[in-house]
Amino acid sequence: MIRGILQPSIYLIFELSSRAANYPIDFNIIIYFPGMDKKGPRVSTTRIECPDEQSPLLRAVVNLQHSPSCHRPPCVSAAGKFLEAVRMITTHLRVLCCKSQHHSSMSASFEPLSETGRFVKLYVEPMFHWWGANFRLLTTPCLGTVEVVNAVGKRQCVVNGASHNYAGFYAPTTESEELQRLCLELLPVSDSDGVPLLRDAVHAAIAGFFDSDFCFTTSTGYGANYVALPALIDPTRTVVVVDRVCHNSIFTGVYLGRCSEIHKFNHNDMFDLESTLKNLPRNSDQDVIVIVEGLYSMDGDVPPLSALWRLKSEYGFILYCDEAHSFLSIGSTGLGCLQYWNETHQADPVPWNLIDIRTGTLSKAIGGIGGFISGKYFLEERVQRHIKQIQDRDHISVFTSTMVQTLLVIDQPQRISRNLNRLAAISRFCRAELDRYGVYVYGDEIGTPILPVWAGRPSASARLSFALRQAGLLASPVTAPAVPFWESRVRVNLSADYSDADVNSLVNSIVSAVVSMGLCKRRPETFRSNNFKELQKTELEESEESRISSMKIKGLINLASIQLRNDCHSRMPSLGADSARNGHSARSMYGIGAGSARWISGTFPPHLAVERLLARTHGAETAMTYADATIGLASTIAALARPVLGSKRHYVLCPQSATGAIRDGLTLIPPRGKRGVGQQLLQYRSSEELLERTCHLAGRGACFTSIVHANDVHVLTRLIQMAGKCPITVLLYDASNFVNIQHMYSDISVSDSGIGQVQLLVYGSFYKILNLPGGYLVGSEALIRELRYTSRGYMYTTSTPPFVMEMVRGALEASSVAA
């Protein structure tokens, strides 16, 4: 029973029946009054110890405070939903009326091959890029402002709200530029094992930063969850309970661990989590892992750590936290969600050792490409054992440039603190101003640097992104499945690198764009300029702190280069002076980091140049590149296992002896895709068995996806003959040289007239060919365009830094000339 009395001193008194309460209770009560239009006072969270287990009453005095923020997002009206249906129909018709004029034997009119591909072609691409006007080619570094070019070549300088440069460390300094030059000239190495001195220094620095017992690095932030979760999960005795809005990489890691019992709880709903934990059998031999994120990138909020602490104390689970967006973005010194919570909830702090294991990325706030796993001693052996068993070493290697940048950033605590104080002040100012104008922004108004602005309809989020760009702000639309369908939004990432004028422009751009679309009614209030002292930007002057840090890192680079030259067992770099010059030139032009995934922030000219060169070298229509070759191959295989248009049965054939990324890809195929309606996963022991199975299964309504090692390329012609007129996609993997697809098509066409039914894909690794990070996929325009949206390792991974891609371009050109 709850009885409330509103007192003149704005205190609310509750009496709660609590006969079974033997633990602290956390109140987070929201009260709405008539006529407040979903706005209302917020009741501050209060923690109360029950004085007596048998006491029938628990008395609490809760401070009632008015909050200016809306607690629930607006709703899309029935008329709005009807308009969305109309928009989808008109978009469909417009695409059909504007078919591409490019034709080829491989991909006539770029027709999609699957239902997913058709959805991408008819809705996703045209609305997301707004018919080319919102295409993003970045021609300057991803700093506070960036120059962006659309599909017709129009240039515009905009405030950058699409990058993950939270702490403002992408901007070059004298020390960082000097270190990067030295690193590229002495240590242009992708293999972390080749520079153990530098690798171990990075591990120690990250572990020391979080005061944890161990640290390991991975090639990407996506890869951190890809490695850590399978290491922790025992398929027979581990239960995973995960927030349902967690990163795709987290679910990928859980599935790779073959966890037999997975539960999802509603986002930040501790009652739902507790209900799940209560229903689990109490088993001393069972591990329960609860997974949360430090800062949810689509919602702008943090997990309720005090409630998690109470539940952890009672149920004894392992708390796993992905700090990809919270590392070096929240907390006064960048320590993430736990520091942020204790600083903003001083009446309800949690212990520093609450989190058992963290993962994070070096691709966002740091500005490189990589990830890390850091945690308590009792988990170290599991992670280390799993890493030793990984066959594809590029998957756990970090480019030396990122190692150097990581050491330089972490070793400057004063600069971190200064920048993050500014970032928090920018966030508070922006949220307060947007709230004053009636713009609904998801998340924690205290100061998280992510502003998800409500748009409602998916097409409205795409249109809002374009309107923001016209107003001078680059920001990305977000729709289902990342967020609920009718809660589509545009995400704005803030940066400490903004000038005061940038902050003013950002707020004005959002307000003007939202008002122009009718998503809110502008209030008749004058705009408040951010003339606060805490917002005054400190110039990145040379400081004693950075000078000392730079000297230490120079010493490490020199020692590591000597060790590399003396160790004949190391993988020596194959890159020459030309490659280093290419890297220096591109870094001066495009900066140190890509800033985000390509669909979020945009793409750089070196990425497009590499893809054009790959397509030309392989005789293919187009290409796509991955930051991590292992994850790229696995996610490509998983994405190809989907229903194909016009086929009743889809057979996916793969070699039984395949290991590493191939095996991971098969594991990631959804259960319904492995043996679902119309789809079946089959394995073959030899090329002869592959041919026999294809011949036996070929028939009316069947199609095939065959995964073939590049060494078995000789079976292609016979394989396609066996398939007859059935559609067949062949993925050649582990290519150690450049396979020419056009020549293959020529050979096939001599003996088979059904070439239009054939799709050839070639997957290769820059790591294996050039000793540079990343992988690539070449093939038809239709299939590559689909995979850019369905291959999770591409969609959700920060792209390779543009200066590294320029090094790849130079090395590819040199290799093609030599060939």
Automatic annotation (TrEMBL):
Gene3D superfamilies recorded: Aspartate Aminotransferase, domain 1 (3.90.1150.10), Type I PLP-dependent aspartate aminotransferase-like (Major domain) (3.40.640.10)
Cofactor(s) annotated in UniProt: pyridoxal 5'-phosphate
GO MF annotation: an example: serine C-palmitoyltransferase activity
UniProt cross-references to InterPro entries, sorted A to Z: Aminotrans_II_pyridoxalP_BS (IPR001917), Aminotransferase_I/II_large (IPR004839), AON_synthase_class-II (IPR050087), PyrdxlP-dep_Trfase (IPR015424), PyrdxlP-dep_Trfase_major (IPR015421), PyrdxlP-dep_Trfase_small (IPR015422)
Aminotransferase class I/classII large domain ranges (all copies): 216-510, 758-813
Keywords of the record: Pyridoxal phosphate, Transferase
Catalytic activity, as annotated: L-serine + hexadecanoyl-CoA + H(+) = 3-oxosphinganine + CO2 + CoA
EC number, as in UniProt: 2.3.1.50
Transferase listed as a keyword: yes
Protein name in UniProt: serine C-palmitoyltransferase
Enzymatic class: transferase
Lineage, opening ranks: Eukaryota, Fungi, Dikarya, Ascomycota, Pezizomycotina
